[in-house]
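Appendix B. Chain record.
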Amino acid sequence: DGKAKARSNGDSIDAPELKGGTGVGEIGIRMQPGSDERLTLDIGLQGYTGQRDGWSGGAMMRYKF
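Structure tokens predicted for this chain:
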């Protein structure tokens, strides 16, 4: 049935609910500025909608020696 029970210091903790749904979308781009193939830039964005709304993003720069 997926029910959870927990206690902390003798007190019960509310069980998590998994009602509703959440949609997730992601878009990203990888760039190599100029003709230098050793440098790479990655940028990404994720969006969430439904039971949970929000967004997150990230960036990474990589240089190969």
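Further analysis of this model is presented in Appendix C.
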